Amino acid sequence: MRNAGLLSQIDSFVRSCIGSRRYAHSRSTAELARDLCSRFGVDEDKGFIAGLAHDAARELSSAEVIRLCGDGNPVSGTEVRDPALLHGRAAAVLLSFRTGFCDAETLDAIKDHVAGRPSMGPLSKIVFCADLLEPGRDLPDRIRQKMLLLELDAMTLSVLRSKIRYLRSIRKAVSPLSRALLKELT
Prior knowledge:
This protein is mainly α.
């Protein structure tokens, strides 16, 4: 890590925001994101930081998440009905506010990890995939390994389809951003 002090500050911030189980998931996501960044020629530190901080707002109340997101892009009706869709945007706001971290590419990756969006950059795609494919997730290892062997766009499409199948199985709305990303990748 090029800046151990910054990483330590972000790690402390994340630990203060979430419980130990979610922190273990975030740490595992960060490690996988770093590995995927290495494979795909993306800045590994940015991948690690985005993976570590991606769920920093996941345990906040719906009202707090909506409040944090209200100052940026408009909050959609789908997001108001399911504020969990906003936790990535809220995590980016919190990280920036609490630590002063301001790398736009990394903050975008944190924002994008929930639903994705069209025209995502490689770092956003990596964090989007690492969130689902980290080893602590309840996903059969053979499926995880098969998905991890894909090229980045194919991996992103496979993860997106998996997320959409899951949302439909529990009768939750699919974000318009996810639908637009699916259209872009197919």
